[in-house]
Input
Amino acid sequence: MRPQTFGEVTIHRVLELEGPFMLPSDVFPNATPQALEPDMHWLLNHSICPNTGKLILPVQSYVVQTPDHTILIDTCVGCGKTSALPDWNDRDDDTWLRNLAAAGFTPQDIDFVFCTHLHADHTGWNTRLLDGRWVPTFPNATYILAKSEVAKAEADQSNVFRENVQPILEAGQAQLVETDFALNDMITLIPTPGHTVGHVCVQIQSGGQTAIMIGDVIHSPIQLAHPDWSMVYDDDMDLAAATRIKLFDGLVDTDTLVLTAHLPTPSAGRLTGHTDRPYDFAYVDKE
Ligand SMILES: [Zn+2]
Output
């Protein structure tokens, strides 16, 4: 998406990577070829790669510029991180940093980092390697993290915790919050549990308009047709589906700009109804 301005805020998208990810049936247990067949005519090309049959999935961040603050929402995969997914393991590609610079920001500019949840593709650039140690990438930022997410990651002693979270805690740059935290009257969190225990959406309000970064509430446009289909990496698949449907029912046919983590480029738009399926997505213009 192009930068979106409303009221006193401008929102930029910062892409790290985008491409065929996994087969639909490997992500959504219900997505058999037979079950997908009625929707393939609108899914193919943009949402499903015609060559590989895999879901097209970006990994990206959003930067919200307000009169007072520069706020980064989610920090992608990063470099040098440990992941079971080969494409995400030990990357040395600094595309994300270059795209951040192209949007007009340096790491020093970031005042707050929000993570919708503590998974590898939402926390990677929280830290970078410096002389063999993980250090905060954003030296001037306060990282706003949900208490329940940090507690779960710490209990699991996950790679994400060790590489992307613990160094932030040790640097004294974390602020642990409840999932309904409000930074101010512009930026508020909305608890959306299911994908993870403390998953949040980040709501941005200014000049009577609203945008919402919905993180991993949705992973593919397939879920516009099947909002009850959860994905294999959802901690609680039933709760994830209930959360998605409740959120979507509140957003459908409103003017709220919906920013997604993983819908294909341009990734942002408005949730609408559709005659053939529960929801549709009216994308904003591409860049
Ligand atoms: Zn994700």
Residues 76 and 172 are 22 Å apart (CA to CA). The pocket of zinc ion is lined by residues 119, 121-122, 216, 261-262 (CB under 6 Å). The longest strand covers residues 9-20.
